[in-house]
Amino acid sequence: MSAIVDYAYYSGTYLGNIIPEESFPRSEARAEEDLDRLTLGRLAEIEGSVDYTTAIKKAICAIAEINYQIDAYASGDKKAVKTESAGGESITYFEASGTVAAALGSVKAQDELKFEAARKYLYNTGLLYWGL
Fold it and tell me: For the whole model, what pTM was predicted?
């Protein structure tokens, strides 16, 4: 399965600025897996039949940012580099949000955080419906 979202979409359309380009493929791939699980496999079912909508791409970007922040905290990198500039020697850092930091000790809390991020974009799509 090829990536649904590339870094150009993340940084240009979604206007994301948390995940560095070299870390994006890993965070994006895990976000696809998370979103497929949250949609009860529906993401994989529609992959070949329709173009991915903006809502799905934005949900993947939001979950990818959460995954990146979780990984940064779990690896002990409480402040991950957000941007670097070689000429002016400037480095900008970010700290993961308190919500992400609070969810580190609980897979359930992480799943809830990812679900809320996805729900923001997929609320009216039916993809998050868990009923019969």
Answer: 0.76
H-helix or E-strand containing 81?
Answer: strand 79-85
| CA–CA gap between residue 36 and residue 42 (Å, rounded) | 6
Rounded Cα distance, 130 and 108, in Å: 17
pLDDT in tens, 65-119: 999 988 887 777 655 555 555 565 555 554 555 677 777 778 898 999 999 999 9
Distance CA 10, CA 98 (A): 23
The alpha helices in the chain, defined as continuous H runs, are: 7-8, 24-38, 42-46, 54-74, 98-103, 107-122
Q: Which residue in 115, 106, 124, 129 sits closest to 66, CA to CA?
A: 115
Nearest CA among 111, 33, 13 for reference residue 70: 111
Specify the amino acid at residue 12: G
